[in-house]
Amino acid sequence: MSHQPRLIATPSSLPRPVGTISRRSFLTRATLAAAGALILPPSRSVASLLGTERTLSFHNVHTDEELTIRCCPEQDYDRETRLRFSSLLRDHHADEIREMDPGLIDIFFAMSAFTGSSGPFRILSGYRSPETNSWLRRFSHGVAEHSMHIEGKAVDIRMDDVSTREIRQAGLALAMGGVGYYPRSNFVHLDTGRVRHW
């Protein structure tokens, strides 16, 4: 019998995704802001950036697991999609799953649309249990005591076809949450908290 990671937060205990119209409006505003902040080829309109549906691919570098999901800004993410996403981003040290904030999928959607990346997003860190976070703080001053990773609202990523500098630039332009830039370690932190950067 295969071992199942422990689910520490059930879907019913977590906030529901925001409504369909406001999500579409939010993504449109984010992409418009990004389009105004960065130089885009003239042929790329906001409508073509958003499209109607987009495939997002993920790879967890620690567990070697992969996930592909189809997203549409007109629809909320169903329970199965949210749980598969959360399982991929689980704390592999503690083998615990916490349902991740679905706003992170919105960030990935906008990032993919804006950069034109074919993916995948390489996941270095998603959810962290308080114990794992405390353990990591012993080895790195860059780990916050009250990290948003503990709340299931943050990811650390890199990509094959987009540099970390470009990921940071796109994240700042999208202004959908916090952006942390770690060029020496070759990753970018993205979260759904207040807009800030470091």
Explained architecture:
- With 198 residues, the chain is of the alpha/beta class.
- The chain has one domain.
- The chain contains 6 helices and 9 strands; from the N terminus they run E-H-H-E-E-H-E-H-E-H-E-H-E-E-E.
- The strands form 2 sheets. Strands 3-2-5-6-8-7-9 form a 7-stranded mixed sheet. It has a two-stranded parallel ribbon with strand order 1-4.
- The longest helix has 18 residues.
- The protein is globular, with a radius of gyration of 16 Å.
- About 6% of the residues have low confidence.
Short description:
By secondary structure, this protein is α/β, with parallel strands linked by helices. It is built from six helices and nine strands.
Name some characteristics of this structure.
single chain; 198 residues; alpha/beta; seven-stranded mixed β-sheet; two-stranded parallel sheet; 6 helices; 9 strands; 33% helix; globular
Give the SSE map.
Blueprint: E1 6-9, H1 20-37, H2 46-50, E2 54-60, E3 66-71, H3 79-88, E4 96-98, H4 103-115, E5 121-125, H5 130-137, E6 154-159, H6 164-174, E7 178-182, E8 187-191, E9 196-197
Parallel strand pairs: 1-4, 2-5, 7-9
Antiparallel strand pairs: 2-3, 5-6, 6-8, 7-8
